[in-house]
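Students often ask why we bother predicting the structure of a whole assembly rather than each chain alone. The short answer is interfaces. A chain on its own may look different once its partners are present, and contacts between molecules only exist in the joint model. In this exercise we take two input lines together and write out one structure for the complete complex. Read the inputs first and try to guess which parts will touch.
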Amino acid sequence: MTATEERPIGFGRLGRKEDPRFVRGKGRYLDDITLPGMLHGAVLRSPVAHARIRSIDTSQALAHPRVRAVITGRDLEPLNLAWAPTLSADVQAVLATDKVRFQGQEVAFVIAEDRYAARDAVELIDVDYELLPPVVDAKRALDPDAPVIRDDLEGRTDNHIFDWEAGDKAATDAVFARADVVVSQDMVYPRSHPAPMETCGAIADYDGIHGKLTLYETTQAPHAHRTLYALVAGIPEHKIRVVSPDIGGGFGNKVGIYPGYVCAIVGSIVTGKPVKWVEDRSENLMSTSFARDYHMHGEIAATRDGRILAVRTTVLADHGAFNATAQPTKYPAGFFHIFTGSYDIEAAHCAVTGVYTNKAPGGVAYACSFRVTEAVYLIERMVDVLADELEMDPAELRLRNFIRPEQFPYPNKTGWEYDSGDYPTAMRKAMDMIGYEELRKEQAEKRARGELMGIGVAFFTETVGAGPRKHMDIVGLGMADSAELRVHPTGKAVVRISVQTQGQGHETTFAQIVAEEIGIPPEDIEVVHGDTDQTPFGLGTYGSRSTPVSGGAVAMVTRKVRDKAKLIAAAMLEVRPEDLEWEKGRWHVRGDPSQGKTIAEIALAAHGTMQLPEGVDGNLDAEVTYDPPNLTFPFGAYVCVVDVDPGTGVVKVRRFVAVDDCGTRINEMIIEGQVHGGLTDGVGMALMQIIDFDEEGNCLGGSFMDYLLPTALEVPDWETGHTVTPSPHHPIGAKGIGESATVGSPPTIVNAIVDALAPYGVRHVDMPCTPSRVWTAIQRGG
Amino acid sequence: MQVSMTVNGEQVSREVEPRTLLVHFLRDELGLTGTHWGCDTSNCGVCVVLVDGLPVKSCTILAAMAGGHQVRTVEGLAANGRLDPVQEGFMAEHGLQCGFCTPGMMLTARALLDRNPDPTEQEIREAISGQICRCTGYATIVRSVRWAAEHPSTAEVTS
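Now the answer. The structure tokens for the assembled complex follow.
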């Protein structure tokens, strides 16, 4: 078959292989799975933020006719499972034994014959709590008289978790001391939640005869989970199979191991039956991985004519009751130290302090690329604050300070080496697309009439694709990914990957990578993922790492197969391998294209009876583990227009132009979809979403009645564009796109709102910029 | 209690607890797992089905309340071996990513097109505004519904 625009053999716009099952309602999500004899679990959660547990009475629940078992922390202690290690070298209570430390914390687990009975029985458990004063405000957590949340940790007398810094403090301070202009701004990136439409859940099926646990889980990282369960639960790793079925959105919410999963495993071992546990929406919002909660102080030093010299920041990071952030071990603040942004500066320094509070654990989730979201927000707000101080156009200020194309690879001041970029081209493209100059004229006219229109500009550089094993690991596991490719005798293929799609379309794009490299049509390539018994080891999908890492593995394994095919083709054609030339899907004799062998012919020969060259075995298979040499650095230029109602403070995002550069583009359609989704996240974070707490530690965002997400009416029709600057070190030059728009859009919108409020002297409004916050900012002015 | 209704053209009858929600009736009793559950509070709309042709959040009504009515789920969108134009449109215009909100979105779109075969972008946005999608940013869903409006009958099953 020949490639057409509709059906490319390789990169291009290609309909998704996943879609036919989803549009028929035939996806297989976790809660769709029913196993014979399956029981249902439900979690009893703490109604308060901080309390000592005096007693737990489960007798009435156990007396319920349809209840099979009730598990408490005391039951888990002999199994050494009442506490479990987190991904950040801390421990987290599976079921509370001594105290509860946040509202919604897991206290007991009921196993019943159906989901309604399990819920009924949860209500029958009686817990006697002795209330303790909660620590809700991250700033108060470090007060000497603050209640100590983690008295379970030996010798712990405060709520301090870590101090971490990056950059050169002395050099940065020196630049600040001699700068013409210094501006500073406090800002909060509020606590948010990824809130995938499918909540988290698991089905544990323990086979006592063979000692084998099959665990169906909503996980973005099935292999990492398998290893961690082996380490924690003591089940040998070859006796654990983790299956991640279709996932109804993840966004980082489904990276960690949650107490409900562990309870389902214990429940299955105890009852001898499969046990399903699926959290409800409030459980999802109140107990599983939140995101952000960064309290930042930013400063920027510049010359009077608009040359940015240095940036420094101090951050207070609220990690909740347990330090359970999922990120590379050596980076307690994730990749926040990319806060130097897209600018060529002389010096930079950041200092991050992490604290415990009586809130749910987490912090790294929600398409944040390991805190790049917070970093980009900080620098892009600060550049606008500087532009305001200098009375300079914010786009012009950015253009004046960009790292220039010829400076790549660019070593920044906090230790990153940016791989490639052409920032001015992307910025100018975005400005052209939206008609920047015309908009400024329109804004001036509207201002003269008292109307509030704002134009927001932001430019981001991400660092994704973690990562090189010499620098990055998660609890000791190097952040590599593997791929295995088998070409069957008839020339069809199966590629097995270690990452897990949550809607990104891996079944399509990974087939396209194989197709591009070896010429087998994508529809003839099966992509297998989400089953640890079926796929090679790797760390999973988060931090936009699937294409940069697993995509690299797939390209490399396909090249390995292609190289093997060359040796076999040479034997078939009775020529030397070096006399062969590759055309997509076929090796032919250099200078005589009529003499050649297709991959299908080679595959058949490999599995057939011909004499193979020495050292070549009888298949067309290979396996590769890809250790990326560096991270990749996608970037983008975003411009948006907002209209603000001065009477109500309501913000309407009228237009949004996003120009992204993710390097080589595998599937235009899927890339655009990834960008659209992230832009919508940005509207949510900038205008609506917050997981807030009252002073008692009650969660104020515990349902979709209170935690507001954008609908089709809050977002505009997105306008997207792109530039292509391939990564020089990636096998196919791809950089990753999954989180770019989530990272880049919030500062764009906030910059637009602040721009709209400029007539009132407003320099900053904290997210979410709700009508009341915007209205208040208008009333107070600068 | 005994609950009877017509689901995707087929008469069904089950003995269930009176408190059984329609979403659980469809999923657990009938095995129609294309209808999803997402929020408990009628905000997200992944559970939308059509009751007598109108979009209804099936987590918010009891199975008993649907008794005697016509219920249509995503499994009933394709007919006579042909996909509904809405299903084709969602595939053609990338109106779905994770697929979790998709059944509810498609059923709302079907109901919209049945009463308004040529909706504007704003009418489509209003029609789906009771439903949340976390993946697509909605623009491609709008395009998908427009695609269906422009291709009112699909000639054949394309995949």
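Check your guess against this: Residues 99 and 137 of chain B are 13 Å apart (CA to CA).
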